UniProtKB/TrEMBL annotation:
Single annotated GO MF: transferase activity
All residue ranges annotated as the Glycosyltransferase 2-like domain in the record: 174-290, 308-411
InterPro entries on file: Glyco_trans_2-like (IPR001173), Glycosyltransf_2 (IPR050834), Nucleotide-diphossugar_trans (IPR029044)
Keywords: Transferase
Pfam families named in the record: Glyco_trans_2_3, Glycos_transf_2
Lineage top rank: taxon: Bacteria
Protein name: Glycosyl transferase family 2
Length: 453
């Protein structure tokens, strides 16, 4: 940590010993840990002191003082990141905080701006040079904070869920397949999963997300071909994130694979995903429209390495993650409308928390695009609707919105090509795709109070 020394203040209302123990895992040790608590500390190490609530910052003696909440789980590199930012000359430092509810599901993601004014009294989530504080413990006027665009701290409402017990006949791999009214396509995916060449133990968890057709009857009929098949129901919310989380809760594997009910996995899909997870924490596979949607090859999804974003993402239709990583970051987000955008959000959250994203080109999934105009319009509307939510959450980490010149050109193109609506085939479908997405951008901007057009 060089010449920068940091005292850590823990604002405690209950048992604070767990966060103090976690601070022992830091790659750079704090100068002292100062606990604000009404309870006496008892027999404490020399570098831990307990003071009355509100007295922690005033008790600090190091160059910097960082404030944590007792619910905070700082990552091992948290204090090193703070010290590096402090060494650059910043008077204050803020870091990204991931909030996870008592049910283990992500509730909020806060990424601070690269630079911004800070005022008032120090609260959990900030570190300050002691000279930036007044005699009564307030932040001096004009103080600006440098922001660390990484999720260095997780704030938990309850301890992370325990992993299933190891050993015995427990499968190493669990495939989670959410289903909702997929009777027309589910049979082909179940047949494909029954043909997997993976030699190890694996299970399939089919999650019914409120189907009103024969989807679950088809799943039961596939049981002779898939003996390690389990079916559960998650009808409370029509959300792919809810369904996937429900599947994860009952899954037994350490490696969690996800696919959709309207696609078809190659025989080597599981094997390729398992191999890719040897070198990554979250993996995206390849999507191929040539078999299931050959008429719409112009809509083939861009492969993960060619996405061109500051952070790439694994598509939920073909991805895999280590169980402990998914639990650490709070599972799949459940607040994304229409089952769109939650894969982008998870991928960004995983990477900003310090985990590795990988690509498995040999984990191929036959990908089915929406065949009807209504279906494609609903999908693109949902994608557009979530754009503003993603931008609002991750703009300080590099999530970009389009320049206004490009936005205006898009709307000009829509007006110019309006006659395409009367032309069957590709021109009409293309116009509807673009129009639905642009309309979704506009509606999402209003809903989330963030301009993203």
């Amino acid at each position: 940590m060089g010449a920068i020394r940091v005292d850590v203040v823990v604002a405690a209302r209950g048992d604070w010993r767990a966060v103090v123990r976690r601070l022992r895992d830091q790659t750079c040790a704090p100068a002292r840990v100062i606990v604000e608590s009404a309870e006496p500390g008892g027999d404490l190490p020399a570098d831990v002191v307990v003071v009355a609530p509100g007295r922690g910052v005033a008790t600090a003696r190091a160059d910097y003082v960082a404030v944590l909440d007792e619910r905070d789980h700082p990552g091992p590199a948290w204090l090193a990141g703070v010290a590096d930012a402090a060494a650059s000359g910043a008077d204050a430092v803020r870091w990204g905080v991931l909030t996870v509810g008592a049910d283990g599901i992500v509730r909020d993601v806060v990424i601070p701006p690269g630079s911004g004014a800070v005022t008032g009294r120090p609260r959990a989530g900030i570190a300050l040079r002691r000279t930036a504080l007044t005699a009564d413990g307030r932040i001096r006027p004009g103080t600006r904070a440098a922001g660390i665009a990484r999720l260095l701290v997780t704030r938990r409402g309850a301890p992370a869920p325990a992993a299933p017990p190891s050993g015995g006949d427990r499968p190493v791999v669990s495939v989670v397949l959410p289903v909702r009214n997929a009777a027309a396509t589910l049979g082909a995916q179940l047949a494909a999963l029954a043909r997997q060449d993976y030699p190890g133990r694996w299970e399939l968890v089919v999650v019914d997300n409120g189907s009103a057709d024969r989807s679950m009857a088809l799943a039961e009929e596939a049981r002779p071909r898939l003996p390690a098949l389990r079916t559960i129901s998650a009808p409370t919310a029509r959300s792919a994130g809810v369904a996937r989380n429900a599947g994860v809760r009952v899954a037994a594997g350490d490696l969690l694979l996800f696919c959709d009910a309207d696609d078809v996995a190659d025989p080597g899909w599981i094997s390729a995903m398992v191999g890719a997870l040897a070198d990554a924490d979250l993996v995206g596979g390849a999507l191929d429209c040539s078999t299931l949607s050959p008429a719409f090859m112009d809509e083939q999804p861009v492969p993960l390495p060619a996405q061109g974003e500051p952070l790439s993402f694994a598509r939920s239709a073909n991805c895999a993650v280590r169980r402990e990583v998914l639990a650490a970051v709070g599972g799949w987000a459940e607040h994304f409308p229409g089952g769109a955008g939650e894969d982008v959000e998870l991928s960004w959250r995983v990477q900003l928390a310090g985990y590795r994203l990988g690509y498995a080109p040999h984990a191929r999934m036959g990908y089915r695009l929406r065949p009807t105009l209504l279906g494609v319009a609903r999908q693109k509307w949902a994608y557009g609707l979530t754009g503003a939510l993603l931008y609002r959450t991750y703009r300080n980490a590099g999530y970009r919105r389009r320049p206004w010149r490009e936005v205006l050109f898009s709307w000009f193109w829509m007006v110019r090509h309006l006659p395409d609506v009367g032309r069957p085939g590709t021109p009409r479908r293309r116009w509807i795709r673009y129009a639905a997405r642009l309309a979704g951008f506009a509606a999402g901007s209003v809903r989330h109070r963030t301009a993203y057009f």
